[in-house]
Amino acid sequence: MRVMPTTEPSVFERIIAREIPADIVLETEQIIAIRDIAPKAPVHLLVIPKSSRYRDVAELAAGDPALLAELVATAKALAAEHADGDYRLVFNSGAGAGQTVFHVHAHVLAGGVDEGSLAH
Ligand code: AMP
User: Fold this and answer.
1) What distance in angstroms lies between residue 5's CA and the mean position of ligand 1's atoms?
2) Which of 8, 10, 11, 44 has the most ligand 1 atoms within 8 A of CB, as the residue to mutate?
3) Would you list the domain boundaries of the chain?
4) Is 98 left (phi over 0), alpha (psi -120 to 50) or beta?
5) 3-state SS of the chain?
6) In CATH, which superfamily holds the domain spanning 11-110?
């Protein structure tokens, strides 16, 4: 019998499944947006495709460009709703770049972003 590798559900999958709580600011058929639990800006939201197929933004771009476009449009709309419309969009890609959750997500930083820093 072949043993298939298993991976633990990520924190975002558990939030999507309502297994752990989160401050959900938007939910559509394909996307969920939540407040980051450790905000690095006055407004710090995470825009997350519900699908757990894509580990990072390059995989999402290759696998489902329309979903990436929807994610970016959602980020823009949320920055307008929660701040003045200006925002920084960050996709950490790889552990060496600070990615800790390997389920693609965009950080939307707004409401007064530190102009000198590119870190999330
Ligand atoms: P990254 O480091 O780019 O993978 O981003 C993961 C982000 O998820 C971090 O900014 C964390 O603060 C955030 N995070 C982790 N757990 C939770 C949670 N339960 N609710 C909201 N945000 C979370």
Assistant:
1) 25
2) 11
3) 11-110
4) left
5) CCCCCCCCCCHHHHHHCCCCCCCEEEECCCEEEEECCCCCCCEEEEEEECCCCCCCHHHHHHHCHHHHHHHHHHHHHHHHHHCCCCEEEECCCCHHHCCCCCCCCEEEEECCCCCCCCCC
6) HIT-like (3.30.428.10)
- Predicted confidence at residue 118, as pLDDT, reads 57
Distance CA 3, CA 91 (A): 33
Q: How far does the centroid of ligand 1 lie from the alpha carbon of residue 101, in Å?
A: 7
pLDDT in single tens digits along all 120 residues of the chain? 666 656 789 999 999 999 999 999 999 999 999 999 999 999 999 999 999 999 999 999 999 999 999 999 999 999 999 999 999 999 999 999 999 999 999 999 999 877 665 554
Within 6 A (CB) of ligand 1 lie 11, 20, 22, 34, 36-38, 46, 92, 98-101
